[in-house]
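I'll show a sample.
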Amino acid sequence: MSRKKTRRRIWKWSIGIVCACLYVFVFYYFFVGPFGFRWHALFGTPDYPEGFDIHGIDISHHQGDIDWDALHNAMVAKSPLRFILIKATEGQSYVDPKFHENFAQAKDYGYIRGAYHYMSIKSAAREQAEFFLQTVKLEPGDLPPVLDVEEKPQDMSTLDFQREVLTWLHTVEDHYHVKPILYTYYKFKDNYLNDSRFDDYPFWIAHYYVQRLSYEGEWKFWQHTDAGRLPGIKVDVDLNVYNGSFYDLQQLTLKERQ
C-alpha cells in the first residue's frame, strides 16, 4: 500500500473518531448533563401508570409564563389535575423567579399546592432551612414543605450527609409541626438515604418511563415523567401521581394551628 493511500486512510479514521467524540459530547451536553437522572423521553411521551386517579405537576421558572385558564381545563389520563408542587428556593439565597406568581395562581385556581426547596451542596443545611422559612409562607390547605435532595458532596461521608438532610428536615419540622415531604430519585434514596431515621417522612420518588415504581418502600408521590405536555404550558412539565385517594391527599395538608 502506498504512503499516500495510508495517509488518506489514517485521515478518514481520524475524522470518524473526531465526529464520534463530538456526537458523544453533544448528546451528553444537551440530553444528560442538564438533567442528571432526568432523561428526556426520546421516543415519545411515555404511557401513564395505571391504577392512579390523583394527578399533579411540579413547576418552576423553566415552565415560563403559564396560561392558568388553559391549564385549569387540563386532563391527565382522563383525570383533572389536583395538586401543583412549585419550586421556591435553592441554597441559602436563590428564589425561583416565578415562585410567588405560581404559588398565588395555584391557590387562586383551586389546586392543592406545595412549595419545595432544592438542597444545594454549597451551603449549610440549617442556613438553607432558615432561608426557606423566611421566603415561603405556607397556609392551611397547603401540602407540607418539601425538600428536594439530588446531590451529595463528594468529600462528605454518607453519615454526615444524612445529618445535613436531617438538619433541614428538623428545622422546618419544628416551625410547621409537620414532617416535610422528601423528594429524591429512587437510586439516590437507596444509596444515600436508606436509613430508618427517614422512614417516617412522606417520600416523593422520581422514576421515569416505567409502569411500576421500582422503589419498594412507602411513598406518597411518584414523579413518573419529565416529558408531560399540557395546555397552558409551552414546554415539557413533570407529571406526578399521588398514592392514595383525594381524601387522603387532603388529610396530608397543613391544618389550622390550635
Remarks:
- The helical segments are 3-32, 68-72, 99-108, 125-135, 158-176, 186-192, 246-252.
- The CA atoms of residues 27 and 33 lie 9 Å apart.
